[in-house]
Design brief:
By secondary structure, the protein is of the alpha+beta class. Helices cover 32% and strands 32% of the residues. Helix 2 packs across helix 4 and helix 3 packs across helix 4.
């Protein structure tokens, strides 16, 4: 049982604290950059590294992590008080006011999210997994199916192999057929 979690996992990440962040500089966050490295992945290259932003008061920050990733991949240009998205060069912002501009300006937010999606999609070697014929909408369908998949979380009847699903319904495990369960 000791190695089951490692064997069955789809992704294993090694997280290492890196640069200390000061709330008076950069993004204005007191915390750390965390270097995440894929040790095992069924959908991306093992060994690929990326930074996560961790705030001591709020935990991991998704939008700020995406900002740093875009900047590291040269999709954000400029310096000091006049950063800009390469796809929106006339809209300037500083690192400290990035989050407020992201929240308020819908055009900026949409272009930012489009860049994030395109960059992160490039991390997944689609042609290696699904073949060259897979197009974006097919990949989105596959991801949606995976996200909507029911995970069996607890065995409630070993003799009939009935499990509680993540959607709070009961299933026969081999066929994944929904079944009615009554408790005495």
């Amino acid at each position: 049982m000791g190695s089951s979690a490692i064997y069955l996992s789809n992704v294993l990440l090694k997280l290492t604290a890196s640069t200390k962040l000061d709330d008076q500089e950069g993004l204005g966050i007191k915390g750390f950059k965390i270097v995440a490295e894929f040790i095992k992945s069924r959908s991306a290259e093992a060994g690929r590294k990326f930074d996560l932003i961790f705030s001591q008061s709020k935990g991991y920050l998704n939008t700020e992590t995406n900002y740093t990733t875009l900047k590291d991949n040269k999709l954000i240009g400029g310096a000091s008080r006049s950063f800009y998205l390469n796809d929106l060069p006339d809209f300037k912002f500083s690192q400290k006011d990035f989050l407020s501009k992201y929240t308020v300006n819908e055009e900026f937010r949409n272009i930012f999210e489009k860049n994030v999606k395109e960059l992160y999609t490039s991390f997944i070697p689609v042609t290696d997994i699904f073949g060259d014929e897979v197009v974006d909408n097919e990949l989105e369908k596959i991801v949606e199916e995976e996200n909507n998949a029911v995970e069996l979380v607890e065995c409630v009847d070993e003799t009939q192999n009935i499990w509680l699903g993540s959607d709070k319904k009961y299933y026969e495990a081999e066929t994944m057929t929904e079944v009615e369960v009554t408790f005495d």
